[in-house]
Structures are given as structure tokens and as C-alpha cells.
């Protein structure tokens, strides 16, 4: 909820600014170099003030809560703003590493193992191959790292 409120506030401010106007804002930035694949923690971040335009407001992350727990997709340099596409949710499922596959329909639940054909974060839809039959199916990655298929 806080994230949505923060995003709405920045969107409102960005829309209210004339195209070339600038505003000063305090943003979370890395205090140290963060490398690709590193999980971002609170102690890695500090704050710094920047002059921003409307375009830059839409491309950068404006709150710490939007960064903590994410994983760096590229190297993040100390003191530099972090763009939206520079971080991602942690991958709970890795391509080729067997995972628990749960089929749910009505009152029936079947649990087996499958091989993911792609990596995925919680809530993502990915393809997996049933290791017993070789059938490729689509499922949703769960917070516990399992994959659910079928209707619940």
C-alpha cells in the first residue's frame, strides 16, 4: 500500500511538472557497489538528493521499500540512482533444477516433480517438463518455490 501511495505521489508530481522543469528529490542509492545477482538489503542503501525531470522520475526507483529484498540485474554503483529495470524479484525456481509440481482441480491434488524450462519468481507463469512423461505444461511459481498447475 505504501508503495502504491509513493508511486502515485511521484506520478502526480511528474504530471504536474512542465516538460523541462526540474524538482529536487531524495532517492535511495547504493552505499556500496552491488553486483548482478546480489540481494539488496537495507544496510546497502543510503540516500542522496537529486534534481529530476519528469522523464527521470518515471525511470528511477523512489523508495527503499521498492528495493529491499530485490536482486540486482546489473552492477549498481554507489551514489547513483537505481533505474526500475536494474532490479528484479529473486528467482525462486531455476531452469533445470527439479521442483515440486502441484496439480489442483476441485478436491483432487496430485504432487510430483518437474524440471523448469525457465527460471521464475513468485507469481510468474513458466513452462515446466514433467520428468516422468516428458510433457511440457505451464504453471505459476508459488512463494514456497513450488509450481501450481490446474484450477484451484
Automatic annotation (TrEMBL):
<comment type="function">
    <text>Involved in the assembly process of the P-ring formation. It may associate with FlgF on the rod constituting a structure essential for the P-ring assembly or may act as a modulator protein for the P-ring assembly.</text>
</comment>
<dbReference type="InterPro" id="IPR013974">
    <property type="entry name" value="SAF"/>
</dbReference>
<keyword id="KW-0966">Cell projection</keyword>
<feature type="signal peptide">
    <location>
        <begin position="1"/>
        <end position="21"/>
    </location>
</feature>
<dbReference type="InterPro" id="IPR017585">
    <property type="entry name" value="SAF_FlgA"/>
</dbReference>
<keyword id="KW-0732">Signal</keyword>
<keyword id="KW-0969">Cilium</keyword>
<comment type="similarity">
    <text>Belongs to the FlgA family.</text>
</comment>
<dbReference type="InterPro" id="IPR039246">
    <property type="entry name" value="Flagellar_FlgA"/>
</dbReference>
<keyword id="KW-0574">Periplasm</keyword>
<protein>
    <recommendedName>
        <fullName>Flagella basal body P-ring formation protein FlgA</fullName>
    </recommendedName>
</protein>
<dbReference type="Pfam" id="PF13144">
    <property type="entry name" value="ChapFlgA"/>
</dbReference>
<dbReference type="GO" id="GO:0044780">
    <property type="term" value="P:bacterial-type flagellum assembly"/>
</dbReference>
<dbReference type="GO" id="GO:0042597">
    <property type="term" value="C:periplasmic space"/>
</dbReference>
<feature type="domain" description="SAF">
    <location>
        <begin position="25"/>
        <end position="88"/>
    </location>
</feature>
<keyword id="KW-1005">Bacterial flagellum biogenesis</keyword>
<keyword id="KW-0282">Flagellum</keyword>
